[in-house]
Specification:
The protein is an alpha/beta fold and 421 residues long. It has 14 helices and 13 strands. It is 43% helix and 17% strand. The protein binds guanosine-5'-triphosphate and magnesium ion (MG).
Length: 421
């Protein structure tokens, strides 16, 4: 049996199945019936117990279903045995379903390679020689060695295609790395939106940046990180990145493949965790995201929590603010009040407070300095204003005296102008 390691997974069965139905609908399937079973130990052959399997066969016939989706990962063997028992219906698991959605959503070249890579890695242990379409992966006639079984050939083709995809991805990454390094040198603050799928990250990105990013009620509408520049009300500029949504039981193949998102998150000075506070599973979704971030080594980042969709709880912004704050206290008691902002990305409520909170948090990550910049280096004053925050500015004979804060990564560029307070 191959590894069934997932990341996240704190959501109760009923809600998990509900989410699976939503995923199925997103993938274009119509859900005709659902079935659950509480099992201490899944069976090696069919995952579910004998009686349940009979029930499933009857249900499948009665509803004339042609697809059965399991919420947990199935071993290749279980999948095969289930398909045999279900006579003709296709059997897939949550991972395959998510991979399928990702495949239909991937838009950029990079996104497509990532999904294809994840699919290949998922397929590899499941190959049982029935792969006639593998020719398109670069092998085909003539690749089969003497005495080699079809299965071995298939595996070899998939492995080759995996390593090809990996090296292609490496090129894209190198390019991204370059862009990121350039941003870092410029000293721009980087802020990333994270959160459960469908929480409203892209809508919030639109509200903040009028960026025109796709936002829709389907799960996983965003696959590729998108970045936009935003000006802060108190001066200064930041780069905001929208990222792929998280989900419980996230297929680990995908976590590894979506490194572009992860790299953006790693680089960020601040993460805005978007939570749909109107959803009954808000707490579990919040924890799932924290768990995934923790596993990715991002647990120590500076956070703001944006409690979104406040317009769904009250009709007026004022009422939504106070009611939203109460809800937040009960669903996310562990989040300090100063790290919390109630928003409605759809209505644009709370954007001012969110930007203010971002400014404060970013300032917390900056270093206090006093500099005197000669008049012939006016460019440096501009740099200070753009990426730092100015508390006091005076014009002296020798130059402009500025007291304020600048991002740590810009310190070296100002060091020659430092003066005592
Ligand atoms: N009522 C209401 N709906 C919202 C709000 N923000 C987002 N939505 C809706 O929630 C759904 C998901 O929004 P997206 O912005 O696509 O969510 P996302 O977090 O980017 O989702 P993925 O990219 O799939 O991870 C869409 O139907 C939005 O219109 C809000 O403040 N209020
Ligand atoms: Mg999105």
């Amino acid at each position: 049996m191959e590894s069934t390691r997932h990341i996240g997974g704190t959501i109760p069965i009923k809600e998990s199945i509900e989410e699976l139905s939503q995923l199925a609908a997103t993938a274009g399937a119509e859900v005709l019936a659902t079935l659950t079973q509480r099992l201490e130990h899944p069976s090696h052959s069919h995952y579910i117990g004998k009686g349940k399997l009979e029930e499933l066969v009857i249900l499948k016939d009665a509803t004339e279903s042609n697809l059965v989706i399991f919420d947990d990962e199935l071993s290749p063997n279980q999948q095969r045995e289930l398909e045999r028992a279900l006579g003709g219906a296709k059997v897939i698991d949550r991972t395959a379903l998510i991979l399928d959605i990702f495949a239909s959503r991937a838009q950029t070249h990079e996104g497509r390679i990532q999904v294809e890579l994840a699919q290949m890695e998922y397929l590899l242990p499941r190959l049982a020689g029935q792969w006639s379409h593998l020719e398109r992966l670069g092998g085909g006639i003539g690749t089969r060695g003497p005495g080699e079984s079809q299965l071995e050939t298939d595996r070899r083709l998939v492995r080759r295609s995996i390593s090809h995809l990996k090296s292609e991805l490496e090129d894209v990454r190198r390019h991204r790395g370059l862009i990121r390094r350039r941003r870092r040198v410029r000293g721009v603050h980087q802020v990333a939106l994270v959160g459960y799928t469908n929480a409203g990250k892209s809508t919030l990105m639109n509200a903040l940046a009028q960026a025109g990013v796709t936002a829709e009620s389907k799960l996983f509408s965003t696959l590729d990180p998108t970045t936009r520049a935003i000006s802060l009300p108190r001066g200064g500029e930041l780069l905001l990145t929208d990222t792929v949504g998280f989900i419980q039981k996230l297929p680990h193949q995908l976590v590894a493949a979506f490194r572009a998102t992860l790299e953006e998150l790693k680089e960020a000075d601040l993460l805005i965790h978007v939570v749909d506070i109107t959803y009954s599973m808000a707490t579990a979704q919040y924890q799932t995201v924290l768990q995934v971030l923790g596993e990715l080594g991002l647990g120590e980042k500076t956070f703001i929590v944006a409690g979104n969709k406040a317009d769904k709880i009250e009709a007026s912004e004022k009422a939504a603010q106070s009611h939203g704050a109460l809800i937040m206290k009960s669903v996310l008691p562990s989040v300090p009040e100063e790290d919390l902002v109630i928003v409605s990305a759809a209505k644009g409520w709370g954007m001012g407070r969110l930007l203010e909170c971002i400014s404060v948090k970013l300032e917390g990550t900056m270093s206090a300095v006093t500099v005197q910049i000669p008049y012939d280096a006016g460019r440096m004053v501009e740099l200070f204003r753009r990426y730092g925050s100015i508390e006091q500015q005076k014009y002296r004979a020798a130059g402009t005296l500025i007291k304020g804060k600048i991002p740590e990564r810009l310190l070296h560029r100002f060091s020659q102008y430092f003066v005592a307070n």
